[in-house]
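seq:
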Amino acid sequence: MHAIRSPRGRSLMVCALAFAAAIAALVMGTAQAAASATAAHAARAARAGSAAQVVRHAGAFDGEASLKSVSCRGALWCMAVGGYTTTDGTGHSLAMIFNGAAWRTLKNPAGKGLTAVSCSSTTFCMAAGGPTGAERWNGTTWRTMLSPKGGLTSLTCASRAFCVRIHGDLPSVWNGTSWRDAKVTDFCNGSAPGPCWLASVSCGSTTNCVAVGTWTVSQEPVQNAVADVWNGKKWTWDSELPANGNPAQLNVVSCAGASCMSAGVASNDTAHASIAVADKWDAKSQTWTDVSPDLGGICPEFQSCAWADAIACGNAASCITLGGPSGSQFWNGSAWQSAKAISAGRGSALQEASCGGSDCLAVGFRKVAGKKRTLAELWNGTAWTITKTPK
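struct:
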């Protein structure tokens, strides 16, 4: 399943299988391109209008490139998206597929970059970005589509006719044709003055989706972590989650099948520090379980921090987090353990992860001679391996 990073950084008080051989060359325009190739490309682009084009120019790539998001369907298929700039500073969208052994570049979608992607199958993905803010993959080509008001914030797709995003403080659902806000109580209407939002949403299936966030109970203020849960028929608001505190918030969530893992922070009155909290949702039993890691005080009380900037689950016994002051953590079904990614050099960063079974793929960027280049790392349940992405 796919993970989406929380769209809004908030203070607590206002609170990624085998070694890949890169056999597909990353096709990007360069300043050293032959004049004839440049002219041919320009002609093709003019004929295609806003259609995506692959820029096949000779010479070494001297721009910058990075990956922002990834979505995996099983262990042998992942879609990664991001963007690159040519030497003249022009931005382009970037998309590529990893099959467990090699990368294949795609005819890139239009626009200057993509920031998020979610795939329900190898023939359906929806992405945030492009000229209008939304792109759709049908297994062969990308198509620009109308973006709903508010954009595709925190995007998750369970089928080609069922995707969910966060629209303000409500889940909004794609029915295969259009987006509509879900018929669910806007709990923020009943919030006391103070923080109230939904930060992240994920679907393990068309009958199991969870959106998480926080709301203010009283003006002291007292904040509770909250969740909106979809069971295939209706959305239900739940503010009585086990890993709560004052204040408390859940920032990210990832679902795989009937299981979801959420991560956030809460205040510990005794330690006077912010602590890591995690709640696990079982759709079959309709129950929440506190599975918070023991990371101590992850930052001084009331300061903005998170132990998981992104989270991805492949099944109930395989979840990986990225970022945070305590580094990445791996959930093996019974406990959390440190899962620090391999250093790709100073200035590198993993942005997002997605898991297929017990294997996870994380993407981002690394610095080479001071310029960003794409980066991907594989997690096999025990250790990370850097995969060689196309140049």
